């Protein structure tokens, strides 16, 4: 018996027809993401570049692969290898469920595709959907928690903080299961209303393998969690280096301006004082009368005050010149360029040391099932 396929662009492909799907489920999902979330990705990339974080830019493929924004898959199955319902019964129940699903959640949860497998011992359906909502910029993008919040779903325990075991997705899953089981009961099926998590007996061989691969992937990710955290502390991104260079160069320039100003002040003051002292020695060391010496003392006091005001005026002019945006940018750029080579060399050396870690090789990845 042939399988039944449906997707949001091509509709059904029914058993007994020779019509082939022109596009795979993967192609359909990418097209949907491009059509509905492409504007958001483009706008976010522009914001990243404006914030000088171009390394954060993403493509649609990145959004499709990210575990927080990728489509979610649901398996619909009644019974197991020891006993199940007829394929047409499962198909009818699933059709009613999808219709109810769209009616209830369609504003924020969108079914992309599903496949009814009739060529195995236990008929079952693989269905994939995506959650979305508008962000603070008014852009439509994949956001599971906000989508569920806008649909009115609360935390299982509102008195506790949101977390792995207390989130809106749990409430959503429970509601979906209730909807599905209500439809089953309307068709006269006796269903165990208590969910069973972690079991393997109901799974077909193919599904068991997929689940085992997922479990293995989770185990490997957990084993490498500490190592990834250690690397994240040791390996600096280039963008972080550029930001560091900007900050350090600006601070260095400001401190250099202060040092230069103070050095000019000290040297000028020394020269002025030396010049006045030399003249004072000549006047007071001569045979001039006390009256002349008294007048000379008043003159030298005025000269010192005049030199002091001239010195402060000159220093203010120097500061204004050094603070001029064009001059400052040019000098800071020179400082940054001279520092970059040294910083990058040290970074490369540090990265090389990290990569020598015995467990720092490419982390293993379990390849996802090709659909």
How would you sum up this structure, described in words?
- The structure is a single chain.
- This protein is of the alpha+beta class and 371 residues long.
- The chain contains ten helices and eight strands.
- Strands 1, 2, 3, 6, 7 and 8 form a six-stranded antiparallel sheet that branches. Strands 4-5 form a two-stranded antiparallel sheet.
- Helix 3 crosses helix 5 (168-186) and helix 8 crosses helix 10.
- The radius of gyration is 37 Å and the shape is rod-shaped.
Low-confidence stretches: 196-205, 358-371
How large is the count of helical segments?
A: 10
- SS-based structural class? alpha+beta
Mean pLDDT: 78
Largest sheet: 6 strands, antiparallel
Question: In which range does the helix fraction lie?
Answer: 55-70%
Strand percentage lies at: 5-15%
Spell out the helices and strands N to C: EEHHEEEHEEEHHHHHHH
**Number of DSSP E strands:** 8
The N- to C-terminal Cα distance equals 19 Å
Whole-angstrom Rg: 37 Å
Shape: rod-shaped
């Amino acid at each position: 018996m042939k399988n039944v396929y449906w997707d949001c662009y091509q509709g059904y492909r029914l058993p007994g027809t020779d019509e082939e799907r022109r596009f795979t489920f993967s192609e359909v999902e990418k097209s949907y993401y491009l059509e509905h979330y492409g504007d958001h990705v483009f706008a976010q990339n522009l914001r990243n570049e404006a914030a000088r974080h171009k390394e954060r830019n993403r493509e649609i493929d990145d959004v499709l692969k990210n575990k927080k924004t990728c489509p979610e898959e649901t398996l619909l199955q009644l019974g197991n290898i020891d006993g199940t319902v007829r394929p047409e019964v499962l198909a009818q129940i699933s059709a009613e469920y999808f219709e109810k699903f769209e009616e209830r959640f369609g504003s924020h949860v969108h079914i992309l595709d599903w496949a009814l497998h009739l060529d195995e011992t236990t008929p079952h359906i693989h269905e994939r959907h995506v959650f979305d909502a508008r962000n603070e910029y008014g852009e439509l993008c994949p956001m599971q928690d906000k989508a569920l919040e806008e649909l009115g779903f609360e935390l299982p325990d509102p008195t506790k903080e949101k977390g792995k075991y207390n989130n809106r997705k749990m409430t959503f899953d429970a509601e979906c299961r209730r909807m599905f089981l209500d439809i089953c009961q309307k068709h006269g099926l006796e269903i165990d209303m208590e969910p069973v998590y972690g079991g393997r007996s109901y799974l077909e061989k193919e599904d068991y393998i997929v689940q085992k691969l997922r479990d293995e992937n989770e185990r490997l990710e957990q084993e490498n969690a500490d190592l990834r955290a250690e690397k994240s502390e040791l390996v600096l991104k280039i963008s972080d280096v550029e930001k560091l260079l900007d900050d350090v160069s600006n601070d260095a320039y400001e401190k250099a301006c202060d040092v230069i100003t103070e050095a000019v002040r000290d040297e000028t003051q020394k020269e002025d004082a030396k010049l006045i002292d030399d003249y004072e020695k000549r006047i007071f060391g001569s045979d001039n009368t006390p009256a002349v010496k008294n007048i000379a003392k008043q003159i030298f006091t005025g000269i010192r005050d005049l030199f002091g005001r001239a010195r402060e005026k000159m220093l203010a002019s120097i500061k204004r010149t050094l603070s001029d945006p064009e001059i400052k940018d040019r000098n800071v750029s020179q400082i940054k360029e001279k520092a970059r080579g040294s910083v990058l060399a040290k970074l490369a050396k540090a990265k090389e040391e990290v990569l020598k870690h015995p467990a720092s090789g490419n982390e293993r990845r379990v390849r996802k099932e090709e659909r």
